[in-house]
Specification:
10 helices, alpha/beta, six-stranded parallel beta sheet
Length: 335
């Protein structure tokens, strides 16, 4: 066992883009589990746009990470020592152990080894896949033949959303940040079309690719992309609002969409959702997604950066478009 535990500590709240001094990597002793607890060694750390929200003191769905605390983050870990009869050494556990090599925990979700790659539990079979599943099916409620638009289509969530929409018989149009990503979602994930928002006028491209208008928008970006979608939303259209990453690093409050009046005129619905609200229903998701995955109907990407020391620099990939699929830091070798 390593003699130290590397931890990323929040030192100050970022203003605009995350800077090197906003978090600090420190070394502390490896903690010891108490009664009913176990020591978990981090194998994979999930990096997500919500990490930026947790660093701020804005109103949010969980308490913000406090200055001096270990940065919050989803993890897949292996149990090293245990004083909890429900967890044995060698068990694979997912939870919120944070940006650190070791954590003392009292619970978590156990995952079997050998059935799927361990990274699947951090992506398609984890919160990422559940976000796509419930956001599209429970909030977006697509019907066969409808047009579904997915922003950040090559991302961890968006790429799965588009595939589920195709399974439900929809016309699916993605929006991504490069020609390579657009080719990927069309050729490998089965989207009907994809718009490179850095190269094309999104409004004009949506008119071309969505000749019948837009029935469902799975929104990850916000900003001008959401505005372009609202300009072409259909009567009784639905916007499943998953994220607003285009504004997470903004220093000032962002203006609302110019075409917001269309929500009224088209009697559309915009509904935000947070995946933790669906935890009691994860069994529904797991049953469907496991079946689709086994049948080869759902594919997924994983982008791995090695080394806990690289977690902060890797997080920037989410905001520059440098990753494709689920972004993970591999902190240790798989057991």
């Amino acid at each position: 066992m390593a003699a130290v535990n590397r931890q990323w500590i929040l030192k100050r709240r970022p203003v605009g883009d995350i800077q090197a001094g906003d978090l600090e990597l420190v070394e502390t002793p490896v903690p010891k589990p108490g009664a009913g607890e176990f020591l978990a060694r981090t194998i994979y750390l999930s990096l997500d746009p919500t990490n930026r929200i947790w660093m701020s003191d804005m109103e949010q769905y969980m308490p913000p990470v406090q200055i001096g605390e270990v940065m919050r983050g989803g993890t897949l870990s292996v149990v090293e020592q245990s004083n909890n009869p429900h967890f044995r050494p060698g068990d694979i556990v997912t939870g919120l152990a944070g940006w650190q090599d070791y954590a003392v925990l009292s619970g978590g979700s156990k995952n079997p080894k050998g059935i799927v790659p361990l990274t699947a539990y951090m992506s398609v079979l984890g919160a990422t896949g559940a976000t796509a599943y419930f956001g599209l099916l429970d909030v977006g409620r697509p019907n066969p033949g409808e047009t579904v638009v997915v922003s950040a289509a090559a991302g961890a969530v968006g790429s799965i959303v588009g595939q589920i929409a195709k399974l439900k018989g929809c016309h699916v149009v993605g929006i991504a940040g490069s020609d390579a990503k657009c080719r990927h979602v069309v050729e490998d994930f089965g989207f009907d079309a994809c718009i490179n928002y850095k190269k094309e006028n999104v409004s004009a491209a949506l008119k071309r690719e969505c000749p019948k208008g837009i029935d469902v928008d799975f929104e990850n970006a916000g900003g001008t992309i959401l505005d372009a979608v609202l300009a072409q939303i259909n009567l009784k259209g639905r916007v499943a609002l998953c994220g607003l990453i285009s504004g997470y690093n903004a220093k000032e409050p962002q203006p609302g969409p110019q075409h917001f009046a269309n929500v009224l005129m088209k009697r559309a619905r915009i509904e935000g959702f947070i995946i933790i609200d669906y935890l009691p229903r994860f069994g529904e998701f797991a049953a469907d997604m496991s079946k689709w995955l086994a049948e080869g109907k759902i594919k997924y990407d994983v982008h791995i950066v090695k080394g806990m020391e690289n977690a902060l620099s890797a997080l920037d990939l989410l905001f520059t478009g440098g990753n494709t699929g689920k972004l993970l830091v591999q902190a240790a070798d798989e057991p």
